[in-house]
Write a structure and sequence with these properties.
The complex is a heterodimer of chains A (64) and B (135).
Chain A (H helix, E strand, L loop, with lengths): L1 H24 L7 H9 L2 H20 L1
Chain B lengths: L6 H17 L6 H24 L18 H24 L8 H8 L3 H19 L2
Helix pairs in contact in B: 1-5, 2-5
Classes of the chains: A mainly alpha (64), B mainly alpha (135).
């Protein structure tokens, strides 16, 4: 099971890399990641959720 | 001759020093709690300063420019990837034995055995925080 689980994480990472390359080549078809984050931050609720997620990640990973 | 502000370089240096400091702490100790709380507290202070410093013209309003906003179709692949990663993380978390179902946390734990690697992760976290709260 470990190999399958690891493969899924690797597949997700590779997909992210492919999307990133695609967004550089054709930003009209695949949005730049920064543009997606900017769109989320433009919304009050999205901004609060994203900042909360950032705080939670720091606390969870480094302090817990 | 063009004047170059030293502020960005000083900020990077401060973040690097903070990263090394946080990486030197051990989770579940008061030192780790204090170091992470200091970074989060600084972010909250910046957010509050932004909110009260420029009433009516909040720095966040610059994100609202329609020209920057991607179409739903263009954003969909990223949202699908995020949803897939979140679903797999949840499945792995509840699936049972951690060795067989690694989560992001367990992968990080393996990486954080090396202080230098942990410092790099902390630096990335601080950089992301700066990106999110910057004016």
């Amino acid at each position: 099971m470990t190999a399958l689980a690891d493969s899924v994480w690797i597949l997700l990472a590779v997909t992210g890399a492919v999307l990133w390359v695609g967004s550089r080549a054709a930003p009209d078809r695949v949005a730049r990641p920064g543009a997606v984050v900017a769109a989320v931050l433009a919304n009050r609720v999205g901004r609060a959720l994203m900042l909360s997620a950032w705080m939670f990640a720091g606390w969870h990973f480094f302090a817990r | 001759m063009r004047h170059v502000s030293p502020a960005p370089a000083l900020g990077v240096l401060a973040a690097a020093a903070g990263s090394v400091l946080v990486a030197a702490t051990t989770p579940f100790t008061p030192a780790a709690d204090a170091a992470v709380a200091a970074a989060i507290g600084l972010a909250v202070l910046v957010l509050v300063a932004q909110a009260v410093g420029t009433p009516g013209v909040h720095p966040w309003s610059r994100w609202a420019g329609a020209g920057r906003r991607p179409t739903r179709a263009a954003a969909a692949p990223w949202l699908a990837l995020f949803a897939a990663a979140a679903a797999w993380e949840l499945f792995s978390y509840f699936a049972g034995r951690r060795a067989a179902h690694p989560t992001l946390s367990s992968a990080y734990d393996a990486l954080a055995q090396w202080r230098a690697a942990k410092a790099v992760v902390v630096f990335c976290w601080l950089a992301l925080g700066w990106y999110l709260v910057r004016a």
